[in-house]
Design a protein that fits this description.
The structure is a single chain. The protein has 322 residues and is of the alpha/beta class. It has 11 helices and 12 strands. The strands form 2 sheets. It has an 8-stranded parallel beta barrel, surrounded by 8 helices. It has a two-stranded antiparallel sheet with strand order 6-7. Helix 5 links the parallel strand 8 and strand 9. Helix 2 crosses helix 3 and helix 4 crosses helix 5. It is globular and about 70 Å long. The protein binds ligand PBG and zinc ion.
Amino acid sequence: MNIRPRRTRKTAISRNMVAETRLNKDMFVYPYFVTHGKGIVHPIKAMPGISHFSIDTLIEDVRKGLQHGINKVLLFGVGEEKTEDGSSSHSHHSIVPQAVSALKKEFGDALYVITDVCVCAYTSHGHCGILEEGYVNNDKSVDLLCKMALSHAQAGADMVAPSDMMDGRIGAIRETLDDHGFVNTGIMSYSVKFASAYYGPFREAADSSPQSGDRKAYQMDPRNGNETIREALLDEDEGADILMVKPALAYLDIIRRVKDATLLPLACYNVSGEYSMVKAAASQGLIDEQRIVMENMTAFARAGCDIIITYHARDIVEKGWL
Ligand code: PBG
Ligand code: ZN
């Protein structure tokens, strides 16, 4: 007997035939930062290739993406009035609901619009909820998040994505949406979100850094694995449609564990720091950007992700990397 695993590695055709992981453009979600104004395409220094858009330029950029098959976007609002209680987070005049209704008016069901639901870009203190004597009050924050999610649903969002990590928010948001007739508005839960240094560039992009302290009293401790399963199963019970692990690269073990523990579709968020590190190294000629990006995407899919939220999505489809 002569067992040779190299046999099926011999040519591209046989390698493709036995490939266990196959990426597909339907997996990708592309994030956008939206701001008030007109004609704005303002590059974000910390995230080469990513910009702030106003609604008019957003529509044109989304149109380009759609031509390449990027038909799912995740919206973040930037530049809204910041107050102690984060009240602009659920105003109908805020940029996210405005952008959602403009996008849905322009593209209808050809575009799937997901909105990030979190108040850190809307609070003066930059925390993801209501701050009381240095501690984020869970239940008051959940009330606020419900209002924010509802305002996005009312604007026409297909799915809301709570990224705050308060306890019980998925159930509360589900109930709020259902009570108002939005039974078909989905919830993608950032169920397993770690307190991570990989969000650094994003916080510049969204102007959402906490003014004091950090997010460790609500986001998860990177040392914990079992707890991620508890978080994931709670969100499943509370009615989430999709679960998420975030960040992605340093948490592939968690992706696999969560995938094995649930039957829900699983997303990962390939976050700003992961993106910017690749971009920085590539711009210095230290790595081959295409190969590194596709190796990372393959790793997410192999680890168990059905959906990949990534700032690389446009490069991947427009440059024909798939
Ligand atoms: C808001 C939010 C953050 C990200 C997504 N939603 C930042 C944070 O929690 O500090 C990070 C996204 C990225 O880094 O690309 N809570
Ligand atoms: Zn937040």
